[in-house]
Target: D-3-phosphoglycerate dehydrogenase
Amino acid sequence: MNPTTDKQKYFIIDFDSTFTKVEAMDELCQIALQNHPEKNERLSQIQSLTDQAMDGTLSFRESLHQRIAILEANKSHLPELIEKLGEKVSESFKRNQTFFDTYKDTILIVSSGFKDFIVPIVTKFGIKTENIYANEFEFDEDGKIKSFDASNVLSEDNGKVKLLRNLNLQGDIYVIGDGYTDYEIKEAGLANEFYAFTENIKRDKVVDKADREAQNLDEFLYVNKLARNISYPKNRIKVLLLENIHQSAKEAMEKEGYQVELLTSALTEDELIEKIKDISILGIRSKTNLTSKVVEHADRLLAVGAFCIGTNQIDLEACQDRGIVVFNAPYSNTRSVVELAIGEMIMLMRGVPKSVMEMHTGKWNKSATNSFEVRGKKLGIIGYGNIGAQLSVVAEALGMKVYFYDIVDRLALGNATMCDSLEELLSISDVISLHVDGRTENTNIIRKEHFDLMKEGVVFMNLARGQVVDIAALVENLKSGKILGAGVDVYPEEPKNNQEEFISELRQIPNVILTPHVGGSTVEAQENIAQFVPHKMIDYINAGNTFSSVNFPELQLPKLQNAHRLMHIHKNVPGILAKINQIFAKNEVNIVGQYLKTNEKIGYVITDINQKYHQEVIEELKNIEDTIRFRILY
Ligand SMILES: NC(=O)c1ccc[n+]([C@@H]2O[C@H](COP(=O)([O-])OP(=O)(O)OC[C@H]3O[C@@H](n4cnc5c(N)ncnc54)[C@H](O)[C@@H]3O)[C@@H](O)[C@H]2O)c1
Ligand SMILES: O=C(O)CC[C@@H](O)C(=O)O
Model:
């Protein structure tokens, strides 16, 4: 501290529901009345009394008297309580030891709770015993808690205000707490600022009175530029999840501390441009186009999650150029697509869709004409990736002969046979199923001349991407009867949401199964995806891991403790690593680990350092020519 310019800073911190996630008296009640028949009733009485005192609707002393009377607690219950409270310290307090170390002389715990359980918890963080102000229990000769030390100012109404007045601290005073009694310190003119702490409980009345809301300790430390372990508070990270992504993705990200907005629909380019400005993490499925124009407006965007397999809807290069990492879920819904494909091919070979349509109009047509088993038939799979290969195995189990064609060499599974050309596959197959990806070059890979090569009475399925098939040619071949039946799940133009009409020439053609792009839409697949993708993005935000990203050099990094991790993304030009290290050397910063990976266009460097760094180092690193993005992870 510079004594001439800086004032001493004091931090007045509340204990219950602030330092810890819980109200200690509630916990004590749980322990003391474990087997008591009125346990639940008494607990809710205690909770209500606590709330009334915190909201300022009941005098504090009265609330305390009543709570102790209801409790029937004993000294012997305290060790269990202390153990429990130790496990319930607020997450943001646990992760900011640097703050406690730096300001240990001027952090004061001011609580209406009891020293008997507060001292053992907060001293573990380095808080000095003499800086802990709280009440004290009084016990009878059997160790029963009978009352409290009434001479302690904190047991009085307005006790915190009286205490602060007595302490007469000279300097800047910040109060952090969740209750009305914490606000009263500021109201009495004894603090510069009051922060309503809402990590554990949000009391609207208290937040309304506060100078600011601190969603966690990180936020308080960040806005006041104080020593901390987290460079950027997670509650400032905004997440936008579109297209009805499974709720558990939202929950996972909220648990991480992010602000999450979940929308059921996709957004148009203009809507997305408007929304994306303050978004750090975006989650989409197949219907949101993340164009380069949107990316240009995405100033805060760090990571994109495709909650599906396909990433053709994302301008991956534009994202890469701006240092935005993209992840997808390459396996989570593959089984669901395979099951739908199998089901459809059996239905189509039996003419079931046509029968269903007829039966609904009252027509009974019992016949075996054009109705076949799949056993022994030739299944031609185009695109032998994760889905194609899995389909191959299941189809063989049904007794089908599997052929496949892929543009890259793929290992044939089971007895499958690789075809040398697409033409060969088309000419021999009884059932053709498309499982290629949606890259631009795959537009209309199946068109008139390809249908011409197919056998009469072929079954044709596309569960990959709409634009890979020329729909007019498909319609023509269905109407001519050359194609016995078709299963289509994906379309060149798809409605943005469930309210828009589906418009297609394929409507009303018999023996065609039309499904609304639901190959991967099963409860199991959506749950799997909603676990997989958020985990990848969180791991990137927290630790810099890019393993299995679809557009970034892949780094899988070790976990670190007591170190800072700095992330530098730059254009892949010679000499950047040297420049980074020159800056560290010049500033005598010791590197404990360094990891570099590049691809054709960008380089990704992670540097771990085990000492304090100066802001100048950060500025210099940011200013290296060809830097795309620089971030301190922790
Ligand atoms: N209907 C749905 O709901 C749904 C669900 C999941 C996936 N999909 C689509 O299915 C596609 C395939 O998924 P996957 O997990 O198997 O992908 P994948 O990347 O594992 O496999 C795609 C395969 O197609 C091959 N390929 C690409 N272009 C080709 C071409 N012109 N000719 C022949 N082979 C070609 C690739 O080499 C690769 O082996 C996805 O890209 C996605 O578009 C649809
Ligand atoms: O769920 C979606 O929107 C897309 C499903 C599928 O096409 C995929 O690419 O995984």
Q: What stands out?
A: Residues 285-286, 308-310, 333, 520-521 surround (2R)-2-hydroxypentanedioic acid (ligand 2) (CB under 6 Å).
